[in-house]
Every structure is written in C-alpha cells, then in structure tokens.
Amino acid sequence: MGGFGKKKQENKGSSKKLLKLPEKELRARSINNHLKGKLVEAEKGYLAYIKNGFYDADIFSNYALICEEKGELDKAIKLYEKCTLNSPNHIFSKFNLSFLYYKLNNLVKAEILIENAIELNPNLPNGYCIKGLILKKLNKYNDSKKSLNKAIEIDPNYFDAYINLGLLSKDYNKYNDAEKYYLKAIKINSNSAIAHLNLGACYKEKLEIDKAILYTEIAIKLDSKLENSYLNLATIYNEKGDYNKSIELAKKELTINQKSDLVFQLISEILKTNQPLNISEKDNREYLKNILNRKDISHRELFGSIDNLISNQILEKLSILKSEPYDNKEFNILIRDKELIKALSLLIFCSPLWEKVLRNLRKNLLIKFSEGIQVNNNILNFTIALGSQCFINEYVYYISEEEKYILDKIKNSINKNTNQDYKLALISCYQSLYSINSEFINLDSYISNNKEFNKLLDLQFNEVSNEKNISSEILKVGNIDDLISKEVKSQYELNPYPRWIYNSYAKEKKVNFLSIINSEIYPNSIDENLIKLTDKKLNILIAGCGTGIQVLEASRYNNCEITAIDLSNASISYAKRKVDEYGMTNIKFIEMDLLELKQLDKKFDLIECSGVLHHMKDPARGLSNLVDSLEPRGFLKLGLYSKYARQEILRAREIIKEKKINPSLDKIRSFRNDVLNGDLKQLNEITDWSDFYSTSMCRDLCFHSQEKCYSLIEIKKIIEISNLEFLGFTLSKDVKNNFQSKYKNINSLKDLKVWDKFEKIYPNSFREMYQFWTRKSIK
Q: What's one GO MF term for it (predicted)?
C-alpha cells in the first residue's frame, strides 16, 4: 500500500514541457516514472495531468500514494475521496483509502470502505487482508482470522496474509501458530526481512533465545535499514543482561529511526540499571537529554545516571559553600549543566550529599538576594528548577530560623514590581506558590516573560487549582467507617502519595493481559492453551490507585475498562488530573474503602492491589473482598511488605514511637535532619531508601499509622486460604538470575518455601515489596 518504488536520485524536468504533452503520453510517462521509483518526476507528471483538467482514477490514486509517502495525509485523503466519488468502481483507491484510515485509527470509515471494495470484487486477496487488519484493531480476533484465511483461500501463496496471521496469533499468545505462519511466509519469500524479523520476535516470546537472535540477525543481513530490527535484537540482549551490547544495538536503531519511542524507552530501562556502560559522556548526555524531554517515560529511577553527571568533589565543595556563589567555579558548572537543571524539575534527587548541596545553595541564594545581590538568567533558571525540586519532594528539606525570617520579608515585599519572578522562584523553594495566592499576591492572572517560570507557575499553582476543582467531581461510593481506614485516609488527604511528573505510558503499543502477566512473571509463564482470549472488554480494578501511577501503567492493557478506587480524595484528584493530561478515557475513578467493594456489584477479570492490604486493620478481610470481586479464574496482582527487607524501617518506626515524634511536616523535617546529621546513627541505612527523600514517601516509609509486614511462609498460607494459585514474582532479572543460579529446578520459581530460604540469605531481594501474580482457583 506504500507506493510503487523507492525514491531515486533524479534530474528535475520542466513542468511547462509536461503541460504540453498529450493526455495519453503524459499518463504513461507519469506512471512509468512512478514504477521506476522516480517519485519527483512522477509527482510533476501527475500535477501537470490534473492541472490540464484531465481525469483518470489511476492518476489520482497514484498521486495520493505519493502524498501519503510524503506525510501529506489530508491531501491524500482528498485525492482518494475524489477518485472514489468520480469512479465508484475504482477498487484500488478504496483499498488505499481504507488502509490509510486504518493507519489513522479511523476504523469505522476504514471498515465501510473495505466492505464496499470487497463487494465490487470479492476475488482479490488484498481486500480480505486489509479487512483482517481492521478487525484485529477492533479486537475481533475470530473475525480477523477468518478474513485473513479467506485471503489465503483465494491465493494460497499470499505472503501478507501469512505475516498478518502471524502477528494476530502472537498478539493472542498463540506462539506456535505464529511460528507456523511466519515459516510459511519465509517459504513463499525466503528473502523477506520482515518475515525473519517477526519470526525472531516470536521465538523471543517462546523463550527460544538462540533462535530469536539467529532470525533477527538474518533479518538485518537481508535489510540493514529495516525499522525495529536492531531494536528487537537490543531488547533480547537487554533481557540477557548484556546491557552494553543492547545499548550499542539501540544506537544503531536510532540511525534508522531517530524518533522511535520504543528505543528511548529501552535506553531508559538500561540506564536505570545503573550498570557500568561502555558509552561516551557525549552519548550518555544525548540519551538523557532525549529521555528527559519525553512524557511517556518514568524519570524517577534515573537519578543514578543524573548523579554521575557531576563529580562528588564538586558537590562536596558546594555543600559547604558560604561565600558569594555567583562567581564560584563549581556553582557555575552546576547551573550551566542543562541535563541537571532539567532533571531537577522532573525527579527527586535522592542522596544525602545532593540534599546537603541543594539545601545549602537554597539558603545561600536566599541570603544573597536579601543583601541586594543582582541575579542573572542562569541564576533565575536554576532557582526555578530548585523550586520545582522542592515542590516535587513536598518541601521535605529542613528550614532554619534565619531562612524563615528572610522568607517572610521577601513575601511581604512581593508586590513591589522589581524582581517579582525571582522573588516568587525563591519562595517556591520553601512553599508552594498556591499557598501564598491571595494573601501576598494574586497569581490568577500572573504571566511572566520567562517560559521556565510559567512552567513553575503551572506546576505549583495552576495544576493544584485544577485538582481542587476536580475533587468535588469525584464519585463517592459507600462509607468509610473503619477507624484505621479513617486514619489512613487522613494521612493521604494531607500527603497524597507519591507526587510525580511523568510516567511510562503506552499510547499506541497495547498488549493483551496474558502477555503482560507472562512478561512480569518470566521465566514462569501461563500456558496459552489454558486461557481463552476473547473479544470481550477486560474489566480491570486498580484497588488503591493513589496518585495514578498504577493507572497510567495500566494503559498498556488492550481492550479494557479500568475502575480505580482509593480512600483519598486528594490522591484521586491528582490521579484524575494526570490521566486527563495523557488523554486516557477508559478510567472510572471512585472514592471508596476497599471494604465496601461489594457495593460496586461488579466482577473483575483482573485486579491490581499493590501497597494497600498491609495498611489495613484486617488485611485478610481486604483480600477476601478482592477475591470475591474476581471473576472465576480471574487474575490478582498483590504487593505486600517484607519483614526481612524492612528491618531498618522497622527500627526507625520503633525509635519514632519511642520518641513520640508526630508526622507533622516540621517533625518529619527535624527527624530527617537528625538522621542526615548523624544524630541517629542507628538509622543511617534508611538514607539508602529513595522514599526517604520526599515528605509523603518518608511519612509512608517511617510514620505510617498502620503497617504490617510479612514473610513468604505467611504469604503462602494466605494464598492457600484465599483459594489462589501463585503464578510468580514481579522482580528484576538480576534477582531472578541469582535465584536460578542457586536453585536449578525450574519448579523452584513457584515454590514460596524455597524463595523464603533465598530471601533469608539475600534480604534485599524484596526491598520494595513482594509483588506477585495469583489466579483464582476453581473450588
């Protein structure tokens, strides 16, 4: 459907000469140029033909193909539509327009057109092939397969039909069928790079890694410029743990497709491992620059890579800087580092040294401004970025009495027209701009000439205002009567958890739930023959959605409706704002207690509930509610705290209880300050937890009103009592590889007793949580 040939080097001819040619000669010459891949000359001929007032359906349809290739899609559609209007029986213009609508996701028009084309000529296999693709996108698996098989019935050697049947089968986890179709396609055309590439991807899913590499490499030999070929190979090596090979291949993919979303997502994944990589500083910065400018990637885990951009030696000097900062060499290195400044506004900097640096610079900048020092644009932009950082970490940094005094003076002088942007930027490093609106300044109509400042205003004022408006629109179901539920709700109303800017998001690349579960529990897998995938929409429940990270990650599920519940109105309002930003429309938010689930009167095919049950008075009752809300043989993902991994957290909680430290903002700041200053040496290890570096996360980590930790033996009993089947853990491949190196029996991966032995030797294996998939058993 993409045209007759590839563009070649050509000499420009005279358009005036073309206009003088007879109609038949002009038609023949234009089509001949198109067939030879001389697209510029072909386009000139088509334009001359149309300008002369001639009409020919082939000319209009062919010219539309060229417009498509150039990305002039509106023009292409108009040409195709004129062709189908003037020549209703011109079947190929209908094929092409239908396929274009398919690519643009206008499936209603695409389906109408292809049905009409098939009626005109039911003996052309490409019509049924296009129809099969449309039906696949409409999640009509059986109808799609039937249409593609019809194409093969007409032409047993119709290559495209086998390729599309392979893709259809792979999407529905029928890898053996997919393999069969791809092998048939290769038999028809042994030089097809795309067939070998798809077969390699199929073998990757079948865990036949050597074959996956072999066929992907054959695809590259056949066509070294085939999109996704190097990416597929890079993904395989990433899963093997060969990060250097993976990033080398990803770089090659970028020479073919510079804007590939999937390449940057893969590179981001590699950088987040914090493994040493054989890449230049220039490449590293270029990767970070591109990743930090993307909204479909979670930046939170990139701190390790950002931390490496500047030496500890420079940071140590900045952490004790007391003199004039503006002329300081180290300070100027920092504020001119574009990637660092960008990162400050996107992710929490989570190390004691960085906190010391940023706290010191914040104080220094405040004092120097109060002394009348003038600021330049670099200083302003750094202060804006620091204000964003402090807002994201919810003003967790300790504030001295001297700073409070100077800050009050600046707030009271805010309406003096000099340096308003900078004054507001400084204030934003200590409290949100939303909190000073009306009292000190009216920000509703405030506009700056500085683009970065306006972004800060959006973050700290406009978005907060939006959440306040959203909060009154959230649907509420049932009552919150349980005393612990009320306490937990109160905590998250004050400190919605966590605050975030961007997250992983699958706008186009949707996957069926079975593929997602299998990828998470790998090398365990659910037998495709035990699951009957249907066209029915999947009903998903996110139980305890918080501020929406889980909801956004659920964007990868294909053909689903998502219900997201949480106790906290403030958390849901944050989540709803973020989901709206990403344009997700299949989400229903409800403010409710998990204990009230029965009031929904609904069964779910799949439930995700991470980090919730261990904060309940009676986790078993909460789990019972979840299981009761599952369809028979439904899937449930759980996340629970490990008592082995959280030993230092449990010590912190004991000390907090002993010292009677309440979870107010000032008390949390003072507690953290004592830890960072070494006054609580027995708690030094908690500074290794990233959750230590924001108010809501630190409160959740150390001050939560209700928390229960488990061992895997306890979880084994809970799963058995709840009539659930354990499917496997969601863990890093490094942990799983370590486990498999100790326990060779593949069945050990599902044996929680064996995992319990392993965890006692390696207690940090489940540092975040036990995250695992289960399935409702048949009683």
A: protein O-acetylglucosaminyltransferase activity
